[in-house]
């Protein structure tokens, strides 16, 4: 998949906390820092996100999206 966003932060999902329609995804980056994304629970399920998943946090404007590899 190609995206116009250039800011990709590679890392590993630390945890996914789901509450109703929203999921909070905490990603530990390769340098040890963390970034948190709030996405829909449906997207988290569709992407199969769970602790240990290798992902890229894609930053575009004021949003952080999660992309599986």
Order of helices and strands: EEEHEE
The Rg value, from CA coordinates, equals: 11 Å
Q: Helix share of residues?
A: under 10%
User: Can you count the beta strands?
Assistant: 5
Spans with pLDDT under 50 lasting ≥5 residues? none
Give a short account of the largest sheet: 5 strands, antiparallel
Number of helices: 1
Mean pLDDT: 90
Shape: globular
Explain what you see.
It contains 1 helix and 5 strands, in the order βββαββ. The mean pLDDT is 90. It has a 5-stranded antiparallel sheet. 17% of the residues are buried. The chain has 69 residues and is mainly beta.
What is the structure about, briefly put?
The protein is mainly beta and 69 residues long. It has one helix and five strands; from the N terminus they run βββαββ.
